[in-house]
UniProtKB/TrEMBL annotation:
Keywords: Hydrolase, Magnesium, Metal-binding. This is Inositol monophosphatase family protein. Signal peptide: none annotated. InterPro entries: Inositol_monoP_metal-BS, Inositol_monophosphatase-like. It holds the Pfam family Inositol_P. Coiled coil: none annotated.
Length: 257
């Protein structure tokens, strides 16, 4: 990991988070994308552009994948690739003014190097550096002990649980129960804090899973698609993030319909 790059990301994320907090004091410009629950605001676009301008200034050879499409068209993962979700949980940002995050994943030749998730309204910055450790506000994070699925909570999307996508109800039945926050960022934070044993989503895009993939990898958690393989940062996939003690059991439950 390039520590100058790491320190720059910390500074940029603090700046972006402050700007997002202040933006909630005025009226947002909200547009619908594909449905009434799929929103984008001027702050999603401005935050993405803020990071892209910084990256292009300091690291012009790096490739950038951003949800709002202002980055590069990336079709190979060679070299350094940044994957950015400027606001994860835009619906929460607009409706609840809470429970949303900024997510950045850094990859080298397709493999995770570092991941950053900023829980903006709690001013909590989580990051993981692969091969080093996971931190909350620069202090190493001590996750709670997870032993078995039947002693744990699970995290996932409410609609996917109720539609039993990938047999998700089996996770509900085996565990103590499910929790859902409407933001992959906040759900992944729940997992890395040890509040739940896993987070599963039936269809995550690269910017939804990149940061969490790198952070979980840094703490020895497993992150795979439904067939047990490593996620591809160019493809939308079902992704299971899980404590190693429950990963295999969860994968089997999800795969049996
Ligand atoms: C969405 C949120 C949501 C998840 C969706 C994502 P966005 O991200 O993380 O919780 O269920 O799959 O697309 O659009 O708010 O960045
Ligand atoms: Ca979105
Ligand atoms: Ca987003
Ligand atoms: Ca997202």
């Amino acid at each position: 990991m390039d520590y100058q790059l790491h320190h720059r990301i910390l500074v940029w994320m603090e700046q972006a988070a402050e700007t997002l907090k202040y933006s909630l004091e005025r009226e947002l410009q909200v547009e619908e994308k594909k449905s009434p629950s799929d929103l984008v605001t001027e702050m999603d676009k401005a935050t993405e552009q803020f990071f892209i301008n910084k990256i292009r200034e300091y690291y012009p050879t790096h490739q950038i994948i951003g949800e709002e499409g202002q980055g590069d068209i990336v079709d190979d993962t060679k070299g350094t690739v940044w994957v950015i979700d400027p606001i994860d949980g835009t619906l929460n940002f607009v409706k609840a003014k809470n429970h949303f995050g900024i997510m950045i994943g850094i990859f080298e030749d397709g493999l995770p190097v570092a991941g950053y998730i900023y829980d903006v309204m709690n001013s909590d910055l989580y990051y993981g550096i692969v091969g080093v450790d996971v931190y909350l506000n620069n202090h190493p994070l001590e996750p709670l002990k997870i032993s078995q699925l039947n002693e744990s909570l699970v995290l996932g999307n409410v609609e996917s649980f109720s539609n039993n996508v990938y047999n998700m109800k089996a996770l509900l039945n085996v565990s103590l129960g499910a929790r859902s926050y409407g933001s992959a960022a906040i759900e992944i934070i729940g997992l890395i804090r040890g509040e739940a044993a896993l987070y599963f989503s039936a269809g995550l895009r690269p910017w939804d899973f990149a940061a969490g993939y790198a952070i979980c990898e840094s703490m020895g958690y497993k992150v795979t698609t439904i067939d047990g393989s490593r996620p591809d940062i160019l493809t939308r996939s079902p992704i299971l993030f899980a404590h190693p003690n429950v990963h295999q059991e969860a994968l089997e439950l999800l795969s049996h319909k």
